[in-house]
Amino acid sequence: MNKSLLCLLLAVATPTYAAGSAKPKAAPPSPLALSCTGCHQPLVNAKEMPALNMLTPAKIAESLLAARDKPKAGSIMARFVTKMSDAQIASLAAELGSTVRP
Ligand code: HEC
User: Is it true that domain 25-97 has CATH number 1.10.760?
Assistant: First the structure.
């Protein structure tokens, strides 16, 4: 197969592949959500630092509100949530928890 034909095939095949593999909810993550998943990685579901897509939105919101309003001493999370509004927390929780499909 010559090179230009291969390029043409790739160009034709790629969008189909991308569309086929995209999940219905695959909207790009918000910048705020990206700041969370740097630490909370999907494959590192540690007890202390769980993968957020293993938690329900309600659980995430509850934890963030607790970290904001009643931070535990030495909490790492508290510093990320001090400036968040209730609405921001709710939308973040919905976004991150929305991929819960254990
Ligand atoms: C610097 C790393 C880091 C970042 C960034 C981070 N977290 Fe955390 N997260 C932790 C650690 C460590 C804990 C364990 C509790 C603690 O130390 O506060 C935790 C705990 C949590 C918990 C509690 C889980 C439970 O079982 O109670 C939730 C929910 C959570 N983080 C959500 C988030 C969200 C949402 C963001 C983005 C705004 C975020 N985290 C950003 C490190 C991080």
Answer: yes
Give this prediction's pTM.
0.75
Atom of ligand 1 nearest to the CA of 75: 18
What are the residue ranges spanned by the domains of the chain?
A: 25-97
Looking at the predicted structure, is the pLDDT value of residue 7 above 50? no
| Runs of H (alpha helix) within the chain | 3-21, 31-37, 57-69, 78-81, 86-97
What's the pLDDT score for residue 8? 40
Kindly tell me if the per-residue pLDDT of 15 is higher than 50: no
C-alpha 77 to ligand 1 mean position (Å): 5
Give the closest residue to 64 by CA, choosing from 33, 101, 92: 92
Identify the residue whose tokens are 């929305």: 98
